[in-house]
TrEMBL record:
This is DUF1513 domain-containing protein. InterPro entries: UCP028101. It comes from the Bacteria. SUPFAM superfamilies: Tricorn protease domain 2. It comes from Photobacterium sanctipauli.
Length: 394
């Protein structure tokens, strides 16, 4: 089994051989973005920037990253992994929510997170940083409403880890406080992580069930993970599903192309335990776990990050296992496991998967097994999305 310390050594070794493009230091505050061709100052209070050019890019990658100088950011990059906009973040980021209609994105800090950062991924403009409310912290994920006016964020209560969905209204015309919390949904469990939209009216939430102090778990023996569905307008619980093994903390979610919710788990049991780490759920039914041999599950080092479906296959990444796996959705059986140091985000572009790495590699995968890879300068961290970007500004 690959341990976290081994993973870190592998990552350092991979980065040591890269000629990463140097970044020009961390800019003051988080009201600036940088392009690959020029530096630009952005006034967060007026949402304006000083210079604009156009880049003919129809689609792009957007995700959190680490800088070579040890700092953190969010990056909009071309499909070959080269940055167009880089947004400095005050601490490590995790997931990014993207408007379906519009050009705003929200980067969430890694749990227990203290901030969310909204920015315009087409123009490079940033909004004022939104800090977590008192006695609240962010779990690292969120999702926009279908019309893009509301942002739903997974949060926790500091003392108890009780789950909260913070509902934020975005008002770009309000320059001082454009991100206003208008509601909180509670009562669905502790330790929520990722939230997604499964239809226009329903949120799905991966509830990990773990009470933590900082990042230290306190209730492993009594944790109660679940996949819960909430009405996004009222916050009412509409459905709940549970895995048989309560040591499987449900973490990451993805809506498949057949309408099921794919759930990636973190196993909190014995170090030598080999358990299914990905399961599928259809509304009104039960969980169905994906199938692999014990030694194959152990390759993932008890943790699944990003999941994506394409052409009847599922791909799941494991940064802790330094690999990604591909399953055939119809049979639930594993097709292959491939090594990739610090495997992180995955998304679909031109009917292929793009899989990212903390070492800068991007792997293009045509299911089930056609692969190509290329090296870029961005040290991708955790998750990313593929976005449509006509008339991207630089």
């Amino acid at each position: 089994m690959v341990t976290d310390s081994v993973r870190r050594r592998l990552l350092r070794g991979a980065l040591g051989g890269l000629a990463l493009a140097p970044l020009s230091g961390v800019l003051g505050g988080c009201s600036q973005s940088r392009s690959s061709s020029m530096a630009r100052h952005i006034d967060a209070n007026t949402h304006t920037k000083t210079h604009t050019n156009r880049l003919d890019v129809e689609q792009a990658i957007i995700g959190c990253s680490r800088y070579p100088n040890g700092q953190f950011g969010a990056v909009v990059a071309t499909p070959d992994g080269h940055p167009v906009h880089q947004f400095d973040l005050p601490a490590r980021g995790h997931g990014i929510a993207v408007q379906t209609e519009g050009s705003l994105a929200a980067a969430f800090s890694r749990r227990p997170g203290t901030y969310l950062q909204v920015f315009d991924y087409r123009t490079g403009e940033t909004w004022p940083l939104r800090l977590a409310d008192q006695n609240r912290y962010y779990y690292g994920h969120g999702v926009f409403s279908p019309d893009g006016r509301l942002l739903y964020a997974t949060e926790g209560k500091t003392a108890t880890s009780e789950g909260v969905i913070g509902v934020y209204e975005l008002e770009p015309s309000t320059t001082s406080h454009p991100i206003k919390k208008v509601a909180e949904f509670t009562g669905f469990g502790i330790g929520p992580h990722e939230v997604i939209l499964v239809d226009d009216n329903t949120l799905a939430i991966g509830v990990g069930g773990v009470h933590t102090r900082g990042r230290t778990p306190l209730n492993i023996e009594t944790m109660q993970p679940a996949l819960v569905y909430l009405d996004r307008r009222s916050g009412e619980l509409v459905e709940q599903a549970e895995l048989a093994d309560k040591r499987l903390s449900i973490r990451h979610l993805s809506l498949t192309d057949t309408g099921e919710v794919a759930c990636g788990q973190q196993y909190r049991g014995e170090p030598e335990g080999a358990v299914p780490l990905v399961a599928l759920h259809r509304r009104g039914g039960r969980f169905e776990s994906l199938i692999a041999e014990d030694e194959e599950w152990l390759r993932f080092n008890h943790y699944i990050a990003s999941i994506s479906s394409l052409d009847g296959y599922l791909l799941a990444t494991s940064p802790r296992g330094n690999c990604y796996g591909i399953w055939r959705a119809s049979s639930r059986e594993l097709v292959s496991v491939s090594p990739l140091i610090d495997a992180s985000g995955v998304g679909v572009l031109d009917n292929r998967w793009l899989v990212g790495s903390g070492a800068g590699k991007v792997v293009s995968v045509k299911p089930p097994a056609n692969r190509a890879s290329f090296q870029g300068p961005v040290m991708w961290d955790n998750h990313w999305n593929i976005i449509n970007t006509p008339n991207l500004s630089v």
